Known about the structure:
42% of the residues lie in helices and 0% in strands. It has three helices and no strands. It has helices spanning 7-17, 42-46, 55-68.
Amino acid sequence: TGDDISIKNLANKIAKILNYKGKILWDHTKPDGTPKKQLNIDHILKLGWKPKISLDTGIMQTLAEIEKDQLF
């Protein structure tokens, strides 16, 4: 969608959708990686493409598929 989200915010979003009550632990001895991982979608938007679902919906649909396949 071209929206920016940090790994921490994404992890928290997934935990909330899963109703995960545990603690997310971060290994601060490892490098943080690149500070920004945002996809530039300007070109595809000019071609008429628009995202059809939100990130939350995409996560929920992905989890439903995994659960359906009993891999979860």
